[in-house]
Amino acid sequence: MKKTDICIIENSTIVLNNEIIFESPVENFSDFAKEAYKILELNYPKFHKMDSLSKLAFLASEIILKNEDHSRTALVFSNRSSSLDTDFKYQESINSEDNYFPSPAVFVYTLPNICVGEISIRHKMQTENAFFVFDEFDEEFLNDYAQQLIQSGKADKVLCGWAELYQESYKAFVYLLTNERNNLTI
């Protein structure tokens, strides 16, 4: 297995393969994500409807995947807090006596695997995807899972990552794995 690209997003900075490609003085994630979307010239209007966790995973993935064919690329992601950030927002909409209106648009994001679904839709991926919840990033587990997907022929490449977001604390660490023997690189 070979890592071909690594993207890290944290502290209002995006790093690709150890090179800063975007940095912002904005501290809150929502404003940072909007700025990054504009600067990176992404053209995917559905981005603006996503929850914050999906935006984080989407941004990191877009930087690696670009506009190439990834129909045979699988996704294996993880984090610590699942979709808790969105879960709380949804629960607040239920608890409000004055403004009771549980939004279906928010409800759909109360599962963490929705973020990998958004990436799959964007890139027309027709392979496996999985989202695991761990106490901490477990690269060995993700790599082993990815290796099984490639060896079984279910995927040619696997985008692995950690996309953790809760309130204003966030970090994405996303990387693409390929089968070195088949020289599968992007």
Structure, described:
With about 190 residues, this protein is of the alpha/beta class. It has six helices and seven strands; from the N terminus they run βββααβαααβαββ. A seven-stranded mixed sheet has the order 3-2-1-7-6-4-5, with helices on both faces. β6 and β7 (about 170-180) form a beta hairpin. α1 packs parallel to α2 (about 50-65) and α2 packs parallel to α5 (about 115-120). The longest helix has 14 residues, at about 50-65. The two termini are about 15 Å apart. About 35% of the residues are buried. The model is unreliable at about 180-185 (pLDDT under 50).
Largest sheet geometry:
7 strands, mixed
* Averaged pLDDT: 91
General shape: globular
Please trace the helix and strand order, writing H or E for each element.
EEEHHEHHHEHEE
Contiguous uncertain segments of 5+ residues: 182-186
How are the strands of the largest sheet arranged?
3-2-1-7-6-4-5
Q: How many DSSP E strands?
A: 7
How does the helix and strand content classify structurally? alpha/beta
Number of helices: 6
Kindly, what is the distance between the CA atoms of the first and last residues, rounded to a whole number of angstroms?
Answer: 14 Å
Report the C-alpha radius of gyration, rounded.
16 Å
- Estimated share of beta-strand residues: 25-35%
**How helical, in percent, are the residues?**
25-40%
